[in-house]
UniProtKB/TrEMBL annotation, chains A, B:
Family label: Belongs to the ComB family.
Swiss-Prot/TrEMBL keywords: Hydrolase, Magnesium
Entry EC no(s): 3.1.3.71
Gene3D superfamilies listed in its UniProt record: ComB-like
EC top class named in words: hydrolase
Lineage: Bacteria, Thermotogati, Thermotogota, Thermotogae, Petrotogales
Protein name, UniProt field: Probable 2-phosphosulfolactate phosphatase
Residue ranges the record marks as coiled coil: none
SUPFAM superfamilies: ComB-like (SSF142823)
Organism in which the protein naturally occurs: Marinitoga aeolica
Secretion signal span: none
Length: 236, 236
């Protein structure tokens, strides 16, 4: 098995069969939550204008800039807000625009099959990969404004602590560093993550609690290459 | 104390009073070795042409491309080779051109006072910083061809395990991740580092052994901002 981790999205990543994109706070947690409460699909955009263009019947616009809801959007990029308004998400098409997650999700999807992973759906993603014996994985952490995010590397480590038990043929340095974080208590990650501290100061404690509730949802948001449509456990 | 770590050199780093640049395999280890055996100063260049331009009396050209000595240069970027030819380095001016270290050293020096650190001079660098109560430090890891290097993050972690015991006002996520690596045995870092494995395959075991000999040399290679002249423990 070939396992690569990338602490930040960057243009010169290797080609892999599967990409696992992580934006623990909060894009990939929001994606898992929205699919869990019954939305139909999620399409990623990297700017609000593109989201407004795609708005149609049965669509909802979700997104944030600087951790705040984008003006004119239906909801922020907030798992707890999605859960609270679950009924509103049933059978809807979601257009999602976030600061960091959009960039890494679009990059990954331009290169291969893409799964959105977070702590909230950790076990489901692992089961999906192991059951199908996926043997070439690139894990892309989204980071925060170009800086490496502790909570994303930690989530990568949690995945790697299981995946690395397979036969490994290549394991890059970033994978080794992330794996080494896997047993740190969640509370310490929340305490030291600069982005978590920022969200806490903004009063977004409910999102922090939810995003660190490991394997709360049994959902695997996945999109075919270049399709940019994340659905739950589609057959590929 | 404000402590930032950067896993790779990048343009948008913060402004700090002091930059600590790490290229454990092998640029900053070579710099510490060359100063320890009595060379006068080290100037960094990012291409061989620039090195040939600067060649004069009492200068030596040191450098590598793809871990091999550059054609027409006096020596490779090899601490064990420098130590073996110690007498030749006495009072010489060194021009150093390496693949990864040159980039991070030149970036750092364009922004502030710069210290070249590696495992080989770890204790000396720590004593320098603590004695002078330096309270704003950016640690830049050089990486390998744009990828994060395990051995550089480990060296950053070894520095941070001491520095983080001061009063900390800001500690970025990369610092926390690096700190978490500090107690891994050297042998495991050598085993998992992709770059170390490559050098081993090339028969450069002597360099690996030397570069992981922690605090072998009591030397602090330091350059004033924009001066690009690394000398031993100059007064700033």
């Amino acid at each position: 098995m070939r396992l690569y981790t990338y602490f930040l999205p960057k243009e010169n990543i290797e080609t892999h069969k599967y990409y696992i994109v992580i934006d623990t706070l909060r894009a990939t947690s929001s994606i898992a939550t929205a699919l869990s409460v019954g939305c139909d699909s999620i399409t990623i955009v990297n700017n609000p204008e593109k989201a407004f263009e795609l708005k149609g019947e049965h669509t909802l616009l979700l997104g944030e800039r600087n951790a705040m809801k984008i003006s004119g959007f239906d909801y922020s990029n907030s798992p707890s807000e999605i859960l609270k308004n679950a009924a509103h998400f049933k059978n809807k098409k979601i257009i999602l625009c976030t600061t960091n997650g959009s960039k890494s999700l679009l990059l990954a999807n331009s290169k291969g099959i893409t799964i959105a992973a977070s702590l909230i759906n950790l076990k489901a993603v692992l089961q999906y990969l192991l059951t199908r014996k996926i043997d070439d994985i690139g894990i892309i952490c989204s980071g925060t404004d170009g800086n490496v995010s502790l909570e994303d590397v930690f989530t990568a480590g949690r995945l790697l602590s299981v995946l690395s038990k397979q036969d490994i043929t290549y394991f890059n340095d970033e994978s080794y560093i992330a794996l080494n974080m896997a047993n740190i208590p969640h509370a310490r990650i929340l305490q030291y993550s600069i982005h978590a501290q920022k969200l806490k100061k903004m009063g977004l404690d409910k999102d922090l609690t939810m995003c660190f509730n490991e394997s709360l949802f049994n959902v695997v948001p996945i999109s075919k290459m270049n399709k940019n449509e994340f659905k739950s456990k589609i057959d590929i």
